[in-house]
Specification:
Aminopeptidase; two-stranded antiparallel ribbon
C-alpha cells in the first residue's frame, strides 16, 4: 500500500468508477476529480492510499477526518474502500485496513468509523476482522450538494 499522489488521479478515478458500477451508480468523474484533488492537497482532510498487489494497483482506501465530540477529538471515516474483484479473497483488504488503522492511531485519531450496507456481509466481515463493530446508531444524511454519483 502507498499514499496516493496527484499524478495518481486517473487511476483513482478508474478505481472509483469500478467501485460505483458495482453499487449501481454512475460516477461524475469531474466532480470526483475535484474531491480527490482537494483531499490530496490538504492532509488535514484525510488520506488516500492505493492498494497494490506486486506492482499492480488493485484498489484504494479513502479516509477522511472529522472532529467528534463523542470521542473528544479527531476521528477517521473510511469513506471509500475498494479492491478489484480479481484480487479479493487474498487478504489484501484486511491488510490494507489494518495498515490504515495503524496510521490513524499514529496520527492520534480517537476512533474510526465506516458506513457499510446492512446486506453486505462480505464487507462487514472484512471490517470486523480489523476490529470494527456495529453500533446502534442510524445514519441520516441531508445533502447540501450534489454527490459524485447518480443512482
Amino acid at each position: 500500500m502507498r499514499l496516493a499522489q496527484t499524478d495518481d488521479l486517473p487511476m483513482l478515478l478508474d478505481l472509483m468508477a469500478d467501485f460505483y458500477v458495482e453499487s449501481g451508480y454512475a460516477l461524475d468523474r469531474a466532480h470526483a476529480e475535484e474531491a480527490f484533488s482537494a483531499l490530496l492537497a490538504d492532509p488535514r482532510l484525510g488520506r488516500v492510499w492505493l492498494i497494490q498487489q506486486g506492482s499492480d494497483v488493485v484498489g484504494h482506501v479513502v479516509v477522511t477526518f472529522v472532529f467528534a465530540m463523542e470521542y473528544g477529538g479527531v476521528t477517521a471515516v473510511v469513506d471509500d474502500f475498494y479492491v478489484r474483484p480479481a484480487s479479493r479473497g487474498a487478504g489484501l483488504g484486511t491488510s490494507a485496513l489494518a495498515e490504515v488503522r495503524r496510521v490513524c492511531a499514529e496520527l492520534g485519531m480517537r476512533a474510526m468509523r465506516v458506513e457499510v450496507g446492512g446486506d453486505n456481509a462480505v464487507a462487514q466481515s472484512v471490517y470486523r476482522r480489523v476490529g470494527f463493530d456495529a453500533v446502534d446508531h442510524l445514519l441520516m444524511t441531508l445533502p447540501l450538494a450534489d454527490p459524485t454519483h447518480e443512482a
